[in-house]
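Section 4.2 – Deliverable D4.2 (structural model, holo form)

The reporting period included a commitment to supply a predicted holo structure for the target in complex with MGD. Inputs used:
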Amino acid sequence: MTEHQTFCRYCHAYCPMVATVSEGKVQSVKPDTTNAMYGGYTCIKGRQLVEQMYQPQRLTSCQKKTESGEFVTVTSQQAFDEIAEKVREIVSEHGPRAVATYNGTVAFQNSAQLAYSRAFHNALESPSYYTSVTIDQPAKVFVGSRIGFWTAGSHSFHDSDVVMIIGNNPLVSHYAPPGGVPSVSPADQLRRAKKRGLKLIVIDPRQSELAKRADLHVQVKPGEDATLLAGMLKIIFAEGLYDAEFCEAHVGGLAELKAEVEAFDLEMVSDRTGVPKDTIIEAARLFSAGPRGSAITGTGPEMGAHPNLTQHLVASLNIVCGRFYRAGDQIPNPGMLAPPAPKVAQVAEVPLAWGRGVRCRVNPELGELRLGSSKEMPTAQLADEILAPGEGQVKVLFVIAGNPLMAWPDQEKALAAMKSLDLLVCIDPYFSETAEMAHFVLPPKLTLEREDVTLLSDAWYEKPYSQYTKAVIETEHDVIEEWELYWAIADRLNLEVTIGRTPIPNQPKPSKFDLLKAITAGSRVDLQWLREHPGGHIFDDVDVVVEPGLEGTQARLKLYPEGVDQEFAALKDTVGGTADYPHVLIGFRSKYVLNSFGHNLPALKKKSGNTNPAHLHPDDLAALEIEDDEEVSIQSAYGQIQAIVKADTKIKPGVVAMHHCWGLSPDKQGSVRENGANTNLLVSSEAETQRYTGMTRSSTIPVRISKSA
Ligand SMILES: Nc1nc2c(c(=O)[nH]1)N[C@H]1C(S)=C(S)[C@@H](COP(=O)(O)OP(=O)(O)OC[C@H]3O[C@@H](n4cnc5c(=O)[nH]c(N)nc54)[C@H](O)[C@@H]3O)O[C@H]1N2
Ligand SMILES: Nc1nc2c(c(=O)[nH]1)N[C@H]1C(S)=C(S)[C@@H](COP(=O)(O)OP(=O)(O)OC[C@H]3O[C@@H](n4cnc5c(=O)[nH]c(N)nc54)[C@H](O)[C@@H]3O)O[C@H]1N2
Ligand code: SF4
Ligand SMILES: [Mo]
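Output (structure tokens):
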């Protein structure tokens, strides 16, 4: 029997684990209690890794669809040969843009996949590169380019006196942007922070697991976060609670922002948001008192109405309150797996993330989004890129660890798009709803069969920390790593793939370590050393102090850049609920399912059940004369679903809350009690598309609830 230190990659939290191997099989995984960073934390999903490896539902050989629609087993070599040949044919006939990648959530867990598949697209000269980021929280990622960045970064959670968390529930999702509750054993982190005096403000229409622990829970009406934040800014300005000195030195557009928020008087804000006036004042005073701490958002407001403006106002609150590291401050984590960058107390203006490069064909206002050296197209447009004929039409799609049929806006359109492809290849361990439609399904190596490093979470840690794991076990099956599909095509088509400045020859075949070395080139950590020292390391000797800004720098954080005026105008124009659609539907995450991933695992299924109920306040149910557990119809302007209601006092009246990525493909019959319902049937991929990012309104959807006939 051998024990191996490794880490979970079911989600992005990367909890350290110890795997026990005997007789050629992994026997168990348990939390690594020796890990000083995580303190032995894991969740129920991560504890299913062994079950997942050996369960009968797992695909262990490549599947090819025959003319009759049946799947047959082929070798990975045959699959690669045939896929590469088809790609060659399509590229020569239609050009490289016809070949697209969609990297889904779990693709981010393979530390080589994002960079290698992006590099492959560069080599092929195909701009059709998409990820789940643009149907997730793109405002957070891209709208920041409009404001600019403070080079030394914003306050981390452990240095904060106050945190304001808007539509994010890290105790379930293990997700938080920097400044929020870290995904490393989150409940424990929060308990310790509160003990030392942290004040927690939670803005959420639900009494979430996090809201229960808040000093102040602001139960906002969904979609009205921007109104609330504008109202808070008005109070902060009026009461002089902001950092005027910081604004004077580093900020532009203050007067214009002040003028815009003038219209958001307390009465109106309280009316629109459904939040008592006193609570709004208390939130503004508590947050601005700080003196340290950040406001951050999760998916809640980012998927709803006005995400760009909401994100802008959150950033504005942090900016006017000066919530940044200053000269002489210690940087908690400068990042171990990226090249060292100087931390300076000054603003860096960066090029806008949009406006250059390839345009979307159906909606040319949208196009490539850039961040550093990476770029991607907006995913909500991909179904149209597949369906609309003409030059550049996408004919080949690689779906990597994603499930478009469950996750993309407008499920009917996603289905039509998947059906019309010349070649659909899915890398997935299961016949997911999307994989069932594929020409090839290639099964991946799972977590414990792969080498990986904590690349994705590198910048999220609050201390300099990294872990490298070798594969715990060599698999006997013909399964692949996600990036190997791209390598196989690059090799057959003689493409020259380069990661950063490192050329990656196709022969001999690169190892995963070769790729990770290229991806982390120039970083602080010696990857070879890390590889030989499993277990995860806190690098206590890293000591980075913020340097003073250069004299005479003119760069400023922009509180009123181009586009904000129109976003305010749109917010002011929005009327609340309508007579036709009096309720608002929101999303929230389940502890037992990661988007669509988890229904196949018995221990998780037992907890999550067979359906994703529509949670409503009992008073709403009484008013609608609907009983708990009754089947109802939920109608939006774009579609209709059936759902089973669940009485839930944690939900704000007027709101209906459901998990996403449930249900079946729209062309299948099945009862809602057995399969749940897909809320993306209620979402349009065209109406209310956000400027720049192409984000659709996937939550805060006006709906009508009625008894089923
Ligand atoms: N209405 C609505 N729509 C939403 C959302 C919402 O809140 N509301 N959320 C959005 C968000 S934030 C996101 S990120 C997207 C998610 O969108 P997707 O990423 O497209 O969907 P997932 O369900 O996460 O897909 C994960 C897939 O990975 C597979 N998988 C599991 N383990 C492995 C593995 O080790 N390797 C490989 N190759 N595959 C594996 C699973 O079987 C599953 O099919 O959905 C978005 N869509
Ligand atoms: N267990 C589990 N973990 C996950 C996932 C999962 O499906 N399951 N998905 C992963 C993915 S892909 C992502 S992107 C992250 C997301 O991580 P989070 O952003 O933390 O996602 P949620 O847990 O859904 O929390 C969103 C919160 O927003 C609230 N909300 C909804 N609408 C509004 C609104 O209009 N305004 C405000 N202020 N709040 C609102 C909801 O009630 C909910 O509490 O989680 C990741 N982790
Ligand atoms: S939070 Fe759970 S699923 Fe995510 S890495 Fe940790 S154990 Fe795995
Ligand atoms: Mo996500």
